[in-house]
Specification:
22% of the residues lie in helices and 26% in strands. The longest helix is centred in the N-terminal third of the chain and has 16 residues, at 71-86. The strands form 4 sheets. A 5-stranded mixed sheet has the order 5-4-3-6-7. It has a 4-stranded antiparallel sheet with strand order 11-10-13-14, with no helix packed on it. A 3-stranded antiparallel sheet has the order 8-9-12, with no helix packed on it. It has helices at residues 11-17, 23-27, 51-56, 71-86, 106-116, 130-136, 164-169, and strands at residues 40-42, 48-50, 60-66, 94-100, 125-126, 143-147, 153-155, 196-197, 204-207, 214-219, 224-229, 234-236, 243-250, 256-264. It has 2 domains: 11-169, Glutaredoxin (3-Layer(aba) Sandwich); 188-264, Immunoglobulin-like (Sandwich). With 265 residues, the protein is α+β, with helices and mostly antiparallel strands.
Length: 265
Amino acid sequence: MSLPKFHFHHALAVALLALPGMAHAQAYNYPNGSTVADFTVTDVDGNTHTLYTYTAQGRYVLLDFFTLTCLPCQETAPHWAELYQTYGCNSADIVCLSLDYEANTVADVQAYSTTYCGPWAHPPVVTDALALTDVFGVGNAPNYCLIGPDNVMINNVIWPVASMADFVAALPVGSGVAPQACGVGMAETEVPAQATYPNPTSGLVQLGRADVVSVAVHDASGRLCTTRPVRAGQLDLQGLAPGLYVLHQLNARGVAVGSSRTMLE
């Protein structure tokens, strides 16, 4: 197995890796099968995330230790974001957390997500996560790892990552984890109305907001049917049954920024 290119967060890591027998221990303080200590982090939107709270709910937690200038981080970011959106935007069986272990600004990490995460909703980002990085002993980026509901490290380095399927393959056989549409958790009236056109439509819908990266599509009864990416300002509703749909337009952080009604012919 080839490992991701090294991108060290301080000079001490380089010095220690030069010593015989230190490379593995410096990179991973939690070998596969070890119990991971609880931690709490706060993302750039002010939301707190506690490991043992998630695992007590029977959920798997995936961590992405990354830096903004790491080329493999940039190359795999779309697959990471696709995983986050495909499996429920942290509302279902999987929780995804991105941990920037440099002291970058909120604007820097948000620009990174916008640039590299593609059309998918963006996982929550924690910046200045050097302390937690040291606890885990991470010395290279990206370092994707998977923690089970029993707080045990299942895979302390998921690599290589060529598609979302590589993350899914890291889950234990029989985990029961299944794709889940992102839940928006709000009524149509709680977000501003946004025009879409054409309306009615035969499938392609043009959206009016530039910050929309995905849309949660609800039927007339309010049931969530699917969450689909927005590409070049367009949403593709083809494959859905004809009828009236409510479109919750989501920004890069999975927050609804607009709502509209569209008739699919």
